[in-house]
Amino acid sequence: xxxxxxxxxxxxxxxxxxxxxxxxxxxxxxSGAKILIHGGGKIASELGAKMxxxxxxxxxxxxxxxxxxxxxxxxxAGLINKNLVAQLQMQHSNAxxxxxxxxxxxxxTKRPAKVVDYGLVGDVAISGVQTDTLSGLLKLSLIPVFSxxxxxxxxxxxxxxxxxxxSVLAMAMSKSYEVxxxxxxxxxxxxxxxxxxxxxxxxxxxxxxxxxxxxGAIADGMLPKLETAFQALSHDVKAVRIVQAExxxxxxxxxxxxx
Length: 259
Hints:
Elements: E1 2-9, H1 11-14, H2 17-29, E2 33-38, H3 41-50, E3 57-58, E4 61-62, H4 66-90, E5 95-98, E6 106-110, E7 122-129, H5 131-139, E8 143-146, E9 149-151, E10 157-159, H6 162-173, E11 177-185, E12 203-204, H7 206-214, H8 222-233, E13 239-244, E14 255-257
Helix pairs in contact: 3-4, 6-8
C-alpha cells in the first residue's frame, strides 16, 4: 500500500504567524499523499470574547451551543481554513479546503447527552468517512485541508474535535494506505513537565500512559489526544507521533505512541 501522512495542527501554532509559516513550509516538503486537519480553539475563543461569547469547556473539549456553533463555523471552516489553503498554495502545494459537509466527506452523529451535554458536537465514525472520494482527491495530487466542522447529512452542522477527526480519517484510510498519524503542536512532544522542554517522553504505551495520567503528567487537552492515538493504533494505523510543529518533516522527532 502507498504511504499516507495524516497531520493535525493545533490552534496555538495557527495563532502564531511565524511558527505557522515555518510549519507550512516544512509540511510542503513532505513528499507523497498527505492530509491536513486543523483546529483553532484559541482564535475562536478570542473572537468569541469580542462578541461576548464565553468558551465552555470540559476536559479539553468545547461545549457547543447554537451561537458557539456559528462562531466556530465562521472561524474554523472560513477564516482559518481558507488562510491555510492560500498559504499552502503560496508554497506550491495544491491544497483544497473542506468541512465534513463538503462532498459529504465526513458525516457525524450528535453526541448523546450523558454526564455532560456537549451540545452541537458531532461524533464521527469510520463509516462516516467517504474514503473513495478522498482517495480520488489524493490521486489527483490534491492536499485536503479539513476544518473540524462536520454534518449529519440532514442539514445540521456539528463542531467536532479535530484530534478525533484526524484519528478517524487515519483509521478509515488505513484500509487503502499505509497511514502515519502525526499530531503537531507547540511543544517537542509529550513532556513529563510541561514547563521543561527537556523532559520529553520519547515513547508512550498503554502501560506507562496509566501511570503518567495518575500522577498528573498527562492532563487536560492531552488526554483526548492520546485516547484517539491509541484508538488509531488499534485499527491498523501504522504509526502515531506527537511532535513540535517545526519538526513535522523529521521522522525521528517527538513522542512515539505505541500499543
